[in-house]
Each structure stands twice: as structure tokens, then as C-alpha cells.
Specification:
The structure is a homodimer of 258-residue chains.
Chain A lengths: L1 E5 L7 H10 L4 E7 L18 E6 L2 E7 L3 H12 L6 E8 L6 H4 L1 H11 L4 E6 L8 H17 L5 E7 L9 E4 L6 E10 L5 E10 L8 H6 L2 E8 L5 H7 L13
Parallel strand pairs in A: 1-2, 1-5, 2-4, 5-6, 6-7, 8-11
Antiparallel strand pairs in A: 3-4, 7-11, 9-10
Helix pairs in contact in A: 1-5, 2-4
Chain lengths: 258, 258
């Protein structure tokens, strides 16, 4: 099994090392990840400036390729120019911090996996639910198991799995649940501060407003110490509203002319 | 009607001026847009560094507020700290270049509108289908009409409208169609070049592979000179795969323990 590994925390992060180490037991692993931290970059891609690719070493050993761009860039240039052919699977992570509910939208980790799905490569995004995450071992083991399952069962083109793992030792994990994206959102607060020259600047902070209360949602599952696996896709069409809008009374500007 | 206007091409772009000018005829307009071009930034938000907000003038007149961040940042900080209350509607655009099919995923224009939808504010993203777009007038007029319709009919929380307008004079527009996100994707090519010091760098280019051939898709609609209106949302759950995965034969690592 040929496995492409990426992330958004940057190639030097402990999460990606733990993931690559475990995946090497089940396949040929190539790491292509951002040179610097790219959290919350969403699905940004680099077009206006060029990208550079460098070999990256950890503890004196070749670890992978560092790209001075975004997670989505890593997958694109990785598949097109570095490995030159699609891998059997892309695994993005292990992210330091959960990517559930609204956070999926902002996540660079998920975007790397989504870029793979766009390129018709099966993909998994994996996160541990704590920015100071300590328990990568179980998440890495589970990623390897899931990778085998995905390659065996296949995923529909355009679908990826978004996996969130509680930051706990394996024996404290309550189980694994198939979930849907939750509705919890951030209550954003921009702290207003003054710089040394008396000018205002604003720093984003806030807290997640818990709006999920069933184990069918990713956010509630992880809060209850379950691993959450959510199949997501990038068909953003709201089909329900599409149907509802047919009954809107459109003014002449909107009428078909032919 | 209180209208917040943003974009991703930057506050100095002709598209946002044409939009603001037309919307002023139907409501109170406040422009809060990126200081610099933010195309293809997706749904990136700024967390690791602070934001600055400056008053921006065009031809000596106050035009709006420039934020040195992403389109999504503009909506967040705009609603939280600049206008301090939700507007009746957010309109993002007019983008120079189409945002159909896969481009929706990378689009900063759409992300500004989506951030509004996340904040439960009705929103519209508007693009004209040409990077050197010249015909903003009809798109601006249509945006104003659509804004009135949206405020009158409402949109479900979390849904936004993604509008694409052919770069044509009004009399050449074939009509207006309600559409779904198309399946056309980019065939990416990274041009490999050498810098003056002999080191490689890579520049993203490519061409859109047309995969849509019915007028129910945004991409085919604009190719046939129709305006395309697509309702989109940010519930990324793939419900079909969610159901299908229930029949996967999960190994013990995945079993519920309680």
C-alpha cells in the first residue's frame, strides 16, 4: 500500500511523526507536508507565488518533503510533481486539536484530505482532541486500521473520512462511532489591543458554543470519549433549498429569455 | 436594509465598487474588505497574528474599512467589532472570475458569504465569469434584486447563494437558472522552473476539465451565457456514505466497548 502523509501543523510536528511511524508498518509511506504551521488556512492554495520543495530530516534521517505552502498545496504538488502518480491513500494528521463541527470548515488538516478526494484518491483526516495532545499512539494505530479498511472497501470518489480521537490512553476510549458533522460554532471575540505606538489591533479568540447533544454528531461523540468517524464530501449544493427556491416569485430580471 | 459588502479581490478592485454603488440604491451599505488580494485563500482565518483595520478612501471619498486579513476575517471582525450587530444581508463580490464547480472550494469570495451564513446572516456571493471581467453593471443590478428577494423570502440558516454571471452586456445574457454545483475540476500542472541561483521552484497552472453538460449545473449554465444561482451550505456530511458505512465489517479496534 502506497501512503501519502500530510498535515497542517507542519512537517516538524509530533503528530505527523507518530502517524508516519505507525503507517510504515502497513505500507510505503511518503511524507509531504507544510514547512511551517498552517492551522486554520482552510482550503487555501498558492497561485500568485511559486512553491519550493525541500528534503526534510528528523534526527539525521530523511523524513519527507517540506513544501513552503498550504496543506492543499502539499497534496497537489506531491501527487503531480513529487511522487508523480496517485498513492493508494492520503492520510492527513495527526492534528493537534479536534476538527469537528464548524472547525471542519477552517481546518487545513481536513483540506489536505479533501484535496486528495478532489483528485479521486481515498483520504482520511485524523485529529486528536487537544491542542497539547499527548496520546497519539492509539490514534496512529486506528489510522492504520482504517487505512486498510478504506483501501479494502473503497470510498466513493469525492468522499473522505474525518476522524477525531479523544486525547486519552487507549483503555479510556469509550468506543468508535460513525457520526455526522455537528452544529457547534464559535462565539468569536476579537480582543482589541493597542500597539506601542497607540494604534489598535485585534486578535481573534472565542469559545466553542456546544450545540450538539447526540452521539450521532462528531462533537458530542468526542466530548463523551468516543472516536468519531464522519464521511464528508465537497458537493456543497443545498438540495433542499434548491427545491424550495423553485417556488420563489422571481422578478423580470430573472426570467429566462428564450 | 443594512448591507455588508466584502470580496476577495481586495477593497481597491473595480468589482466591489460596482457592487457597492448599485446596492446603495436599495439600502445602507458598509464595505469591509481585504486590504490586499486574497483569491484562492479558501476559508482561511487569521488566528496566529493580529488584524488591523483601516479606513479606506476611493477618489477622496470614504469607501469602507480595509482589513489586513482574509475574506472570512472581514466578515467575522466586521460583524463583531466594526458594525457590532448583524446586517440584514452580506454580499461578497463582484469577483473577477467565475466561482463554479470545484472553484467554490478554493474561493475567498464564497468563503466571505459562507462565514456570514455560519453567523446566521443571509448571504450571497457574486462573480463575473472572466478574470478580466468588464461587465459588472448587470451583475450588480441582479445582486440588488436578489438581495431584496433573499431578505423577503429568507434563506435557511446556514445556506447562502452562489451567483455567477457571464461577462456579457445584459442583452446577451440568456437568462437566469437555479443550479447545482458542477463536477468540473482542474487538471493541475506545476511548472518547474529554476531561479537565478539554480534552485528549482514550482508554479501552479492548469486547465479546467469541463465535466458538466446539463443546464442544471453552474458550470454548464455560465458556459451557455446563463446566470447561475446555486444554494450552497456547509454541512459537509456525506449522508449516503454514512449509511453505506454501517455495513462495513469493523475490526475489534473499532468496536464499542460499552
Amino acid at each position: 500500500m502506497k501512503i501519502l502523509v500530510s498535515n497542517d501543523d507542519g512537517i516538524d510536528s509530533p503528530g505527523i511523526s507518530a502517524l508516519a511511524k505507525e503507517l510504515k508498518k502497513i505500507g510505503d509511506v511518503i511524507v509531504i507536508a507544510p514547512l511551517t504551521e498552517q492551522s486554520a488556512v482552510g482550503h487555501a492554495i498558492t497561485m500568485k507565488i511559486p512553491l519550493r520543495v525541500t528534503e526534510y530530516y528528523k534526527n539525521g534521517d530523511f523524513f519527507g518533503y517540506a513544501v513552503d505552502g498550504t496543506p492543499a498545496d502539499c497534496i497537489k504538488i506531491g501527487i503531480r510533481n513529487i511522487i508523480n502518480e496517485p498513492p493508494d491513500i492520503v492520510i492527513s494528521g495527526i492534528n493537534h486539536g479536534s476538527n469537528t463541527a464548524i472547525n471542519i470548515i477552517y481546518s487545513g488538516t481536513v483540506s489536505a484530505a479533501r484535496e486528495a478526494a478532489i483528485m479521486d484518491v481515498p483520504a482520511i483526516a485524523v485529529s486528536v482532541t487537544n491542542h497539547d495532545a499527548k496520546h497519539f499512539e492509539y490514534a496512529a494505530k486506528l489510522s492504520a486500521e482504517l487505512a486498510k479498511l478504506v483501501v479494502k472497501n473503497g470510498l466513493p470518489n469525492g468522499t473522505l473520512l474525518n476522524v477525531n480521537v479523544p486525547d486519552l490512553p487507549e483503555e479510556k476510549i469509550a468506543g468508535v462511532l460513525l457520526t455526522q458533522q455537528g452544529k457547534s460554532k464559535w462565539d468569536d471575540i476579537y480582543e482589541e489591543r493597542k500597539d506601542p505606538y497607540g494604534k489598535n489591533y485585534y486578535w481573534l479568540t472565542g469559545k466553542l458554543m456546544e450545540a450538539d447533544n447526540t452521539l450521532e454528531t462528531d462533537q458530542f461523540a468526542i466530548r463523551n470519549n468516543f472516536v468519531s468517524i464522519t464521511p464528508i464530501h465537497f458537493d456543497l449544493t443545498d438540495y433542499k433549498t434548491y427545491d424550495a427556491m423553485r417556488s420563489w416569485n422571481l422578478p423580470d430580471t430573472f426570467k429566462k429569455k428564450n
